[in-house]
Design brief:
Bound molecules: pyridoxal-5'-phosphate
Largest sheet of chain A: 7 strands, mixed
Strand content of chain B: under 5%
Keywords (chain B): Endoplasmic reticulum, Lipid metabolism, Membrane, Sphingolipid metabolism, Transmembrane, Transmembrane helix
Structural class of chain A: alpha/beta
Shape of chain B: elongated
Structural class of chain B: mainly alpha
Distance between the termini of chain A: 49 Å
Number of strands of chain A: 18
Number of helices of chain B: 3
Oligomer: heterodimer
CATH class of one domain in chain A: Alpha Beta
Protein name (chain B): Serine palmitoyltransferase small subunit B
Helix content of chain A: 25-40%
CATH topology of one domain in chain A: Aspartate Aminotransferase, domain 2
CATH superfamily of one domain in chain A: Type I PLP-dependent aspartate aminotransferase-like (Major domain)
Number of domains of chain B: 1
Order of helices and strands of chain B: HHH
Distance between the termini of chain B: 51 Å
Radius of gyration of chain A: 24 Å
CATH architecture of one domain in chain A: 3-Layer(aba) Sandwich
GO molecular function, one term (chain B): serine C-palmitoyltransferase activity
Shape of chain A: globular
Number of helices of chain A: 15
Organism (chain B): Pyxicephalus adspersus (African bullfrog)
Largest interface: A-B, 20 and 15 residues
Largest sheet of chain B: none
Family (chain B): Belongs to the SPTSS family. SPTSSB subfamily.
Chain lengths: 577, 80
């Protein structure tokens, strides 16, 4: 139901609501280390830094060392759902479900007209098509608040958007346009992290000149007549930007995932996938035919256990070793706002000799001092990640996806991936937009504009997150992630929050089941470098106002330490040859 | 002034009620069914407690005073 289009299937429904909070502290202070690393993580302070601090003053002295993997503080919080709120949320869903059954009964007995798709008369005896829970949910719960999604936007989705006003006279079954436009709505929902979604400025100018030169369409695939010099230029630039040997650009980010994973792994291979991975990764993994195992979100103990089991036991029944083991993670998780524990993942991958597929859709451009994604954020070597995937759709204000990695990998994909063989290549003006934006971030346009944007985004993110936490909202995720989920929980509040915010001229994305677990409905803000401090302040005032109106300030600032994570169980030592 | 404040407060309270019970998203006729059902249930609870609680309290009192022995009984008898 979420605007982000995350499929329901990529979540395990029975995810327990864990009080999760942990901090990894940066260099300084405590300098005793358990594991000896192989030197790469040494700091100038002479020591290795690491240490998980369980948050809260109580635990200040209680440290857990894990072999000096982090170069910066890593603070990620998931506050526990308050018991009362959880009970009321379930009660709300209960009431809605009862009314849903009543309405379904009435539709069945033709007391009211059914607007929804139904089986044809002659198919009545076949397997029912519209009786599963998702259909029930769409018909009876989602429909009631559907006006919050898919609003047509009629301007550039920059920091402000114009939205077409629409109304319904049959309770959201159909919408009609009133012909008016809601102007200047503050956009807190687009993934416009660096503010490159613009209809003016250098990017727009250069892509319009490329449009005049090349036109918009290519009408062929990369392997045939669709390989333009712009694409080659873009790929060289992406490789340089990422710090990898070679890169490959595609016209669509979703297809980059769903078509390239099948090219990389197949039957007899194992995919270890985070439980909250994006639908495109899930689809790719399923299409590949490889065995898929799911580990708990960002939980390295769970990942290590799966890796160990995979290596010890091999394939089921035959017990042959797996051909390849591919770990699939995302940089920033778009629904939780959490950042992958990349240093630990890389250490595990090295220790168990697996491959790593990193989807940087949300993190590229948005994280790191140079805007080069999570690898840059943690100060790691991009060569440690085997497959660096990302999209141009978010930070660069373009469209499409890339894969970066070794020359061998890219050459293989160029030949074998469905996306290069069958998909039409990227539109040249879009490629130019990405090239210009990327050069701007790298500072190759001779200005510091890109760098300023990256810094502005980091600053905005910290400010926005800090203020929201201070106001008493429950905010999920890492303190550096520009994706800011604000918990709403109750189903009626999803609708009310979206409507009340739009009344105050702020456009937000609200998300509910199936994109999130059923009780963890949320509003998701995406901070942008294009937001000025005044805009953020205004947004914060309005959010606070709506928060008071809807009683959303649930937080009791109880960060219960994560009790089910015995930190000292994993050692990130590489096995020596 | 005061009346306005109370009116505001009541409307806020009603809004919270709507949100928590999810009748916020119900159609008006569903809302009235829901409210009617809830009011009926509450009325029945109040009525039955009005009818039965005094009886039960009296029975309980008699029971406990029976347990606690004759002395209390005699005082009660004396008083009545
Ligand atoms: C993690 C992740 N991967 C891939 C995609 C798909 O990218 P695109 O929108 O460019 O198709 C998204 C988009 O939301 C995403 O969040």
């Amino acid at each position: 139901m979420g605007a982000a289009g995350r499929g329901g299937a990529d979540r395990s429904g029975d995810r327990t609501v864990m009080p999760r909070c942990n901090t990894v502290e940066g260099p300084g202070g405590h300098n005793t280390y358990k594991a000896a690393m192989n030197g790469t993580y040494k700091s100038e302070h002479g020591g290795l830094k690491n240490g998980f601090v369980r948050s809260g003053a109580l635990f200040e002295e209680e440290k857990f060392y894990n072999g000096g993997l982090y170069k910066r503080p890593f603070h990620e919080a998931f506050e526990e759902t308050p018991m009362l709120v959880a009970v009321l949320t379930y009660m709300g869903y209960g009431i809605l479900t009862l009314f849903g059954y009543m309405r379904d009964f009435m539709r069945d007995w033709k007391i009211e007209k059914c607007h929804n798709a139904t089986e044809r008369e002659e198919q009545k005896d076949f397997v029912p098509l519209y009786q599963d829970f998702e259909n029930f949910y769409t018909r009876n719960l989602y429909m009631r608040i559907r006006d919050n999604w898919n609003r047509p936007v009629c301007s550039v989705p920059g920091e402000r958007v114009d939205i077409m006003e629409r109304f319904t006279d049959d309770y959201n079954w159909t919408f009609k346009f009133s012909g008016r436009v809601i102007k200047g709505v503050m956009n807190m929902g687009s993934y416009n992290y660096l503010g490159f979604a613009q209809n003016h400025g250098v990017c727009a100018d250069s892509s319009s000149s490329v449009l005049h030169e090349y036109g918009a369409g290519v009408c062929s695939t990369r392997q045939e007549m669709g390989n333009l010099d712009k694409h080659e230029e873009l790929e060289r630039l992406v490789a340089r930007f990422l710090g990898v040997e070679a890169a490959l650009a595609y016209g669509m980010g979703f297809a980059t995932n769903s078509m390239n994973i099948p090219a990389l792994v197949g039957k007899g291979c194992l995919i270890l996938s985070d439980e909250l991975n994006h639908a495109s990764l899930v689809l790719g993994a399923r299409l590949s035919g490889a065995t898929i195992r799911i580990f708990k979100h960002n939980n390295m103990q769970s990942l290590e256990k799966l890796l160990r089991d995979a290596i010890v036991q091999g394939q089921p029944r035959t017990h042959r070793p797996w051909k390849k083991i591919l770990i699939v993670v995302e940089g920033i998780y778009s629904m939780e706002g959490s950042i992958v524990r990349l240093p630990e993942v890389i250490a595990l991958k090295k220790k168990y000799r697996a491959y790593l597929y990193l989807d940087e859709a949300h993190s590229i451009g948005a994280l790191g001092p140079n805007g080069r994604g999570v690898v840059d954020y943690f100060g790691l070597d991009p060569r440690d990640v085997d497959i660096m995937m990302g999209t141009f759709t978010k930070s660069f204000g373009g469209a499409g996806g890339y894969i970066g990695g070794s020359k061998v990998l890219i050459d293989y994909l160029r030949k074998n991936s469905h996306s290069t063989a069958y998909a039409t290549s990227m539109s040249p003006p879009v490629a130019e937009q990405i090239i210009t934006a990327m050069k701007c971030i790298m500072g190759e346009d001779g200005s510091t504009l890109g760098r300023q944007r990256v810094e502005q985004l980091a600053e905005n993110t910290r400010y926005f997150r800090r203020r929201l936490t201070e106001m008493g909202f429950i905010i999920y995720g890492n303190s550096d992630s520009p994706v800011v989920p604000l918990m709403l929980y109750m189903p009626a509040k999803i609708g009310a929050f979206g409507r009340e915010m739009l009344k105050r001229n702020i456009g937000v994305v609200v998300v509910g089941f199936p994109a999130t677990p059923i009780i963890e409905s949320r509003a998701r803000f995406c901070v942008s470098a294009a937001h000025t401090k005044e805009m953020l302040d205004l947004a914060l005032t309005k959010i606070s106002e709506v928060g008071d109106l809807l009683q959303l300030k649930y937080s009791r600032h109880h960060f219960v330490p994560l009790l089910d994570r015995p930190f000292d169980e994993t050692t990130y030592e590489e096995t020596e040859d | 002034m005061d009346v306005k404040y109370i009116k505001d407060y009541l409307s806020w309270l009603y809004y919270q009620y709507l949100l928590i019970t999810c009748s916020y998203v119900l159609e008006p006729w569903e809302k009235s069914i829901f409210n009617t059902l809830l009011l009926t249930a509450i009325a029945m609870v109040i009525y039955s407690s009005y009818v039965f609680i005094p009886i039960h309290v009296r029975l309980a009192m008699e029971f406990f005073s029976g347990i606690c022995g004759g002395q209390h009984e005699s005082t009660i008898a004396l008083m009545s």
